[in-house]
Design a protein that fits this description.
CATH class of the largest domain: Alpha Beta
GO molecular function: ATP binding; phosphorelay sensor kinase activity
Number of helices: 15
Largest sheet: 5 strands, antiparallel
Radius of gyration: 54 Å
Helix content: 55-70%
Protein name: HAMP domain-containing protein
Shape: elongated
Oligomer: single chain
CATH architecture of the largest domain: 2-Layer Sandwich
GO cellular component, one term: plasma membrane
Distance between the termini: 74 Å
Organism: Paenibacillus beijingensis
Membrane topology: Multi-pass membrane protein
Structural class: alpha+beta
Number of domains: 5
Strand content: 15-25%
Number of strands: 17
CATH topology of the largest domain: Heat Shock Protein 90
Length: 593
């Protein structure tokens, strides 16, 4: 490799690497932006999801608490229960029966354990309790935070709290206890204590978890842990205290932020439940919540690295295998640009470059062939133009000759011949005028037919009455040129010629219809039998037979007007023949003309 070529290739490789890095930078920023946006989206979706779950949780908890409060108020105010508690001679059996009866009376769908702690210290329940369970229940109630400040004669206050289960063996997790003073006539009779199954609230908390690794718990307004989905109460108690401090700093009823807990980052979300004076807290490991985003980041970085590496290797091989040999061919291309197409590439070596050389040679051969073809076509085009100009001389010659004949006839005072020559001149002028135009106004066709009928009257030596029943709106509707002439010619030569039973009348009717333009060409000539009419219909449909002009008209109308074009042939012997056409009109055709 020559030094100049080597240096050029080297700098191209370096330039490509730099360009690749520059192009990769926007991709890196794009990936970072995508990760940031996705993280924000995840945060928003996470908060929305948690908010919806909390709304559902709050609704159910409020429903539970309202039902428990209604139940406790109704039961504590029951006269029969107050009578039994005032009766010093009551038995345990009577109290159990009364509790069960009242539980059925004030039926509640929530599964409850109903207890009454009488003022004298006795414990009554809707199911049997042993002494240890009674003592543990009494101890649990005494340890409630509100117990010391409880005003026993206040029958309006309603307490709720969470504590461990007093049963043997105890159920894991804290139970919800609802308490209500039983007061009658200003006298404290006891305390109604309702214990709700822990599984109900636990299911609500589990349903509110965003992921399996999420921890959720409820705490009161002082930061005391009430109930949690995680049974590690020591860690959760500290978490609830820290959460209360965060909530106090935020001074908002809900919020979210990232916190450190158990040695790792967590997404902290809280929502105050105002009606219950509780706060719902949810802690989700950050790596779990953003696992998909982190995977996207890693995949993006790896993809960018390998893309840059592959691009560098590819460009290096491209330079060594193709660029340097192509530089040797650049001179040939410059010669091609100046129009020197006689040179050819001679190269032996790399297979790909050999294929390229062969392709360039073949391309040069084709270009030369194409140039020669273009030159030949240009010569032919000029020849055709000369022929076209020559062909225009013939119509002018014919028209000039007819004018000379008309003057000769006028000198001879042969008026019928003069009229015939005038009509023939007009016929030829219309036929030769603008031969490239396919459509023309109906009025031009009618003018042409007048001259044609006048000319045919002179030919067949027979007068023909031409009746035109044309609506004014139809005169400018475009139809294919030379549409009426074959039909009129058919009426004259097959209907009138050699038939003298009555005066020959040819009627052309044009009117607007639902399909567009309805055109009828009728005569009162000899007509046709039913068999002859059917035979003519077949000839027109198959474009065969003697009536080739009629078939041509029908085919041209079909091609120009489309599938909506309709044609009908009606004829009766000794009565006449009628050709009926329904020609569609495109919107705007009349205005265009």
């Amino acid at each position: 490799m020559k030094p100049a070529l080597f240096r050029r290739s080297y700098w191209k490789l370096v330039s490509f690497i730099v360009l690749s890095v520059v192009l990769m930078v926007p991709l890196v920023f794009q990936s970072i932006w995508i990760s940031v946006v996705s993280s924000r989206t995840i945060d928003r979706l996470y908060e929305n999801s948690v908010s919806r779950q909390i709304e559902s949780l709050e609704t159910v908890l409020n429903l539970y608490m309202n039902q428990l409060e209604d139940f406790s108020r109704s039961m504590s105010a029951d006269d029969e229960l107050s009578r039994l508690l005032k009766d010093q001679n009551r038995t345990n059996g009577e109290m159990v029966v009364a509790i069960n009866v009242l539980s059925e009376k004030y039926h509640l769908r929530i599964p409850l354990n109903v207890h009454i702690l009488a003022a004298e210290g006795k414990v009554y329940s809707n199911f049997p309790l042993n002494n240890r369970e009674e003592n543990r229940l009494m101890e649990t109630v005494k340890n409630f935070p509100w117990m010391e400040s409880n005003l026993q004669i206040d029958h309006m206050v309603f307490y709720q709290d969470f504590a461990l289960d007093y049963h043997e063996p105890p159920t894991e997790g804290k139970q919800l206890y609802v308490s209500k003073n039983i007061v009658s006539d200003g006298r404290y009779l006891g305390l109604l204590v309702l214990q709700m199954n822990h599984s109900l609230i636990e299911r609500l908390l589990l349903r509110a978890k965003a992921t399996k690794e999420t921890t959720v718990f409820l705490m009161n307004d002082k930061g005391r842990l009430l109930v949690a989905s995680d049974l590690n109460e020591t860690q959760l108690s500290q978490a609830s205290i820290n959460s209360q401090a965060l909530i106090r700093d935020k001074k908002a009823t809900n919020g979210a932020q990232r916190v450190r807990w158990k040695g790792e980052n967590y997404e902290f979300f809280y929502q105050v439940l105002p009606e219950l004076s509780w706060t719902f807290v949810e802690l989700t490991p950050s790596h779990v919540l953003y696992s998909d985003t982190n995977i996207i980041k890693r995949i993006t970085v790896i993809t960018l690295f390998y893309s840059l590496l592959i691009a560098t290797v590819f460009f290096f091989l491209l330079t060594r295998k193709i660029t340097v040999p192509l530089q040797r061919f650049s001179m040939l291309v410059r010669h091609m640009q100046t129009g020197h197409l006689t040179r050819r590439i001679k190269y032996k070596g790399l297979y790909e470059v050999e294929v390229l050389a062969t392709g360039i040679n073949a391309m040069l051969d084709r270009i030369q062939t194409q140039i020669e073809t273009i030159r030949e076509e240009e010569n032919n085009r000029r020849k055709l133009e000369v022929d076209r100009l020559q062909a225009q001389i013939s119509p002018h010659f014919v028209q000039n000759s007819l004018i000379s004949l008309r003057w000769l006839a006028e000198e001879q005072n042969d008026r019928p011949l003069v009229e015939a020559l005038i009509s023939l001149t007009q016929i030829l002028e219309y036929s030769f005028r603008q031969p490239d135009i396919i459509l023309g106004p109906l009025q031009d066709e009618l003018n042409y037919i007048r001259h044609y009928v006048q000319f045919q009257e002179a030919i067949i030596c027979k007068p023909i009455q031409l009746i035109l029943q044309i609506e004014e709106a139809c005169r400018h509707i475009p139809i294919p040129k030379m549409t009426l002439q074959p039909l009129v010619e058919n009426a004259i030569f097959h209907g009138f010629k050699g038939w003298d039973k009555r005066e020959s009348v040819l009627t052309i009717t044009a009117e607007r219809s639902e399909r567009g333009l309805r055109l009828v060409i009728s005569d009162n000539g000899r007509g046709m039998t039913a068999d002859e009419t059917d035979a003519l219909r077949r000839e027109i449909a198959q474009t065969v037979g003697k009536r080739i002009g009629l078939a041509n008209v029908v085919q041209r109308l079909k091609l120009n007007m489309g599938l909506e074009f309709r044609f009908n042939l009606v004829s009766e012997a000794d009565v006449g023949t009628a050709f009926e056409f329904d020609i569609p009109i495109q919107v705007g055709e009349e205005a265009d003309l």
